[in-house]
Amino acid sequence: MSDDNKMSNGRPAAANSGAVPFWHRLSTKLLVITVLSVLVAEVLIFIPSVANFRLRWLEERLSTAAAATVLLLGDEQMELPRNVQDDVLLALGAKAVAVRSNGDSRLLVVSEIPPEVDEHIDVKNVGPFEAVVGALDSMLRGGNRVLRVHGQVGDSAKEFELIMSDKGLRKAMFVYARNVAILSLIISFITAALVFGAIHRFLIRPIRDLRGAMVSFAAEPEDPSRILTPSGRSDELGVAEQQLASMQTQLQRTLGQQKHLADLGLAVSKINHDLRNMLASAQLISDRLRTASEPSIQAFAPKLVRTLDRAVGYTESVLSYGRAHEAPPSRRMLNLRRLVDDVDDMLGVSAGSIAFENRVDATFEIDADAEQLFRVLMNLSRNAVQAMGGEEDETFVRRLTIAAQRQGSISRITVSDTGPGLPPKARENLFAAFRGSARTGGTGLGLAIAQELVRAHGGTIELVESVGGRTVFEFTIPDQPIRLEEARNAFRRPA
After folding, report:
1. Could you say which of 39, 77, 84, 185 is the most buried, measured as most Cβ atoms within 10 Å of its Cβ?
2. Among 3.30.565.10, 3.90.1170.20, 3.40.50.720, 1.10.240.10, what is the CATH number of 332-486?
3. pLDDT value of position 403
């Protein structure tokens, strides 16, 4: 297999296909953690249980010695025959048995007296910690030690004592530990299997399905069948499924729109390429009109030239779209009223049924890019004219008004009309291209372009009001900030 097949985009092929190695799978890790957790729990239970077994074993030996002693002695004080003593000691695994009563101690049966006792154990007064330490000590270091086990048995006031080797105790403890260990392993694996099965059913499998849905969707996001169908669960995984399905649906819609935009951009570029050539020819013809002697031609020729220049500029900007963003604004101080008059001339509505009111003060100045500001006003005004032009009732007032005011260093411009207002769908997607159009067949690009240009100036644009008979858009453009060092140099007198 070649390296190209093994690797894709710098990642292993297994990672691209969504396959996970066995030891890296979440289910494998969960199984191992579950088994280890149960084993740790069994170990924590195992040690106290062995300690408890040790104490119970010693208590049983002490109880057996007490019962045998009472049975053999009865009420008579007599010396047991040697063979009986050996049988008793052999049955108990002890070297000697004694009883203490009213401060007197009597050695009942004895085979030998060891020179030294290694450990004294009071079976009735052993704490939990001492029991655990004693059990571990017996298992790790025992086998050749002598124990003195003593304590009361039942309700008897007598205290019995056993002198014994711990060899039998250690052997019994190992047998018990082996049995408990085997049983613990069986319980651990059974418990782990049950826990793993439940978690795998309710957690791992849904997570694996989510992973598969994401991998499948990533392989072909345009295919609607790759979108996850939620299982209807009401827990956190159910919410995750719903959110993933929603995200996939939105992403697929976005990808479709992007593809549509790409195709549209290619088509527009082709159209504008030819349109630019035709406009160039129109420019040549308009240049000849300047030399005409007719007064009427001399009056409209400059406006025609400016219109053609703007049209050529627009086509060139469309052709460059996709290779670069909107050019940064080239800002100068402008007379806004004159710019609004140019918008009126371009719209050509003053002589028709729509009234155009320029309420900008003749001395109002704004710091902006002339062409970009003209496009903002033109897009907003054209939308207003189209909205009012669709009404057939001649009794309706049709008026487009542009006004401006200054608040400190911020210019605030309003574009209002007396049209029918924007529909709810248009208000929801107001500045979204291809979704914010208020009329059938519209693209919604006008408001999207206006917002982009206003933001490039550091300003904001918003819909202030939209009801039947009044729609108001307002945008602000702040003056350029003054750089302190440049201001100082401007006012600095030459030496």
Report:
1. 39
2. 3.30.565.10
3. 96
